[in-house]
Amino acid sequence: DRLPLVNDGVRLENDKEATQIDLLIEKAYRDLGYTPVRVPVMSIESRVRYVIDLVRPSQASQLSISQNPSR
Q1: Which of 26, 53, 60, 64 has a Cα at 20 to 30 A from 45?
Q2: DSSP summary character for residue 47
């Protein structure tokens, strides 16, 4: 899901334009043969766990979010 739009002085688009860009990006990925997965809006830790569970369902419970990736 799309996170709420925050006017931070860098983004020039409004909410309607951001939604259109989001849809165009998703279409581009689909056109290239990918299957985008929408990640629900929730805490960062929950989003990380959600993605890990999708990518490696059998190993997700063994991984730690704070685990050092260089090991």
Answers
A1: 26
A2: H
Question: How is residue 54 written in tokens?
Answer: 């999708």
The answer for residues whose C-beta is within 8 angstroms of residue 22's C-beta and 6 or more apart is: 2
- Residue 63 in tokens: 């991984």
Residue from 36, 62, 60, 64 nearest 50 by CA: 60
Query: Using CA of residue 55, residue 48, residue 43, residue 64, what is the dihedral sign?
Result: positive
Q: Quote the tokens at residue 36.
A: 């985008």
Assessment of whether the complete model's pTM goes beyond 0.85: no
State how far the alpha carbon of 29 is from the alpha carbons of 16, 26, 32, 63, in Å.
20, 5, 5, 28
